[in-house]
Write a structure and sequence with these properties.
Blueprint lengths: L6 H11 L3 H9 L11 H16 L3 E2 H8 L3 H13 L3 E3 L4 E4 L2 H11 L3 H16 L2 E8 L2 E8 L20 E2 L5 H7 L4 H11 L13 H14 L2 E4 L6 E9 L5 E10 L5 H21 L5
Antiparallel strand pairs: 1-3, 2-3, 4-5, 4-9, 5-6, 7-8, 8-9
Helix pairs in contact: 3-4, 3-5, 4-5, 7-11
Length: 294
Amino acid sequence: MLTHAPAPAYNKTVQLLNYTHQEAHLAMSNQYDGDDTNFSGTVLKALDILACLADYQRPLSAQQVATVCGISRPTAYRLLATLISRGFVRADANYNYALGTKLISLGRVVLDSIDLPELARPYLHELCTLSNETANLSILDETELLYIGKEESLRTPKNPNFVQMRSNVGTRIMPHCSGMGKAIMAYLTPNALQAQIEQTIPLKAYTPHTIVEPDALRTELAHIHQRGYAIDDREVDEGTRCVAAPIFDSGGRVTAAVSIAGPAYRLTLDQLDHFAPEVVRVARALSRQLGYTG
C-alpha cells in the first residue's frame, strides 16, 4: 500500500499554500466565467479521480482510473498516492483503489450544514415556473406536516384574477389529508407509520374526500409507495388539489416532500398526472443533494 505522495505533487501543494492572502482572496472572489486560466489542472484531475471512484462504486486499478479520466498511468499513480496520503483514497493489497474514509467526515459536515429550504428554493421556483402553480416544501414535525418552503405563481396580465394558495411557511396540517403528508407517510418504516396513525386516530375529516379509515389510508399509502408520488384530490380543502413526492436523506430516510398545488378548477386530475414526473424528478434531485444514493 502506498504511504506517501511523490515530491512533484507535494511541491505543487506547498506552492499553493504559499499564496499570499491577497492572491488567495482574489482567486476565491473571482466567479467562473468560462475562463479556466485560474484553475489548477492538477486539482481538477484529482477531483476527476474522486468522481470516477464514486461513480464506479468498486475498487479500480491505476490503469482503469487513467483510462476513465483520460490521463496517463504515471499521472494517475502520482495523484492516487497524493490522495492516499490525505485519506481521500485507499488502496488494497493488489493496488486497487477506492474512496477513503476521510470523505465520510467531510460529507457529514456538508450534510449537517445544509439549509433545506434554501437548497430547495431554485427547485421550487422551477416547479412554480413550469406549472404556473404554487410549489411547496414540507417536513413531518411530530404528528403534523409543517410547511417550510413555498414559491407562488404571480398574477399576470393573462390571469388578472389569478387565485393563489392560502398555505404559508409555518402552516401546520395533519398529514393524512395532504399530498406531501401522504408522500412522507408512504415511506416511513412500518413501526413509524403505525405510531403516526395511532397518534392521530381518529383521522380528522377536512372534506368529504378526506381518507379517515386507517385501513383505507394504509391501502392508499401502499399505492403511493408503488408509483412514487401522492395526490391530494380535494382532501384538505374542497377547492384545491396537489401532487407531491418524497425527499430522502443520506441515510435513506424520508425527510421531506415537495409538491405542486393549485385550485381544483385549474389543476385537474389530468394536470396532476402531467406534472407528477416533474415533481418526482425534483424530489430525486433534492434527495441527491442531501446525499441520498438509492
